[in-house]
Amino acid sequence: MKKFLSVFLAAVLAALIFAGCSNSGNTGSKTTPNPNANNNGNAEGIVKVGLGQNISIAKSKSAEGENGAVAQVDTVMAAVGLDKDGKVVSVTIDNAQTRVNFDKDGKITSDLNEELKTKVELGDKYGMKSQSGIGKEWYEQIAELEKWMIGKTIDEIKNLKTKKTDDNHPAVPDVPELTSVVTISVQDYIAAVAEAVDNAIAVENATKVGLGHNVSIAKSKSSEGDNGPVAQVDTVMAATAFTADNKVAGIIIDNAQTRVSFDKNGKITSDLNEELKTKVELGDKYGMKSQSGIGKEWYEQIAELSKWMKGKTMDEVTKMKNENTNSADIPELNSLVTISIQDYIKAIVESFDNAK
To answer: Which of 52, 131, 140, 327 could disulfide-pair with 196, CB 3.0 to 4.6 Å?
Structure first.
């Protein structure tokens, strides 16, 4: 009888040990993965997507002696995904620091057809690492700031403690988790994220959000006669939320058409401190309606285009363009959208490639 009990107890003990090993230490029921969990680990998913930006021409310079005028347009942009509690679960920040150079006679010396890159796209070529006290490039530092923002509300983000290190760095993070990884001034990046949250729209079944853009200086003009040179920087931005099966859950598109004007002697005539606005922000003041054959402003047309894209795959989006006219080749959009869409499609495709 004792021998039987010993064998029985040994068998029970072995079964318990086996069960414990198979549950990897969990004594509760088996956990089933949540199909709505996104790439940032948020089980509830993304319920809003937003696009924010801010623009400055403050670093532009008048011509001086043998040095021609320089227009510099800094366009900060941010795409944000929010959960049901208003916390950031996806954020991408970038900065298009775009220059247009002129010689002393006001002639453009920049390549108008150059493929212009943002600070993230420039990567190590941006050249901050050698001047950084922490040995990190701009794209590395902005990635650390984005990482810090994940899981926080916009109030928590705006309340980030900062310090002034010099006149060019008035708001450097001053919290233990960022002091060794972020030494750039962050006020413009936080402002862009805050605007993205303010502008956010509702989406369904979104699992990731991406930021896309493209930049052009092709419409800039050299000085001619009594007319001074004009730099024009067109920065298209798109914040797109995507579903798990890679369809557009929601999208916001905007275009910052920023000009810096000079007189015939190369002196800046634009207000360097002006609050610059995008086409969406200008609204009816952009002035397209009177020239439009369908009587619709730019912001109205881009809203219709964005609405049509919802639920579409990237393949469907890229095939909507008429290759001859660069306009939407979709019957239901003929009376709603007459603007050229090639730059917007490029930005959307890039937002898909960058989505997280």
So the answer is: 52
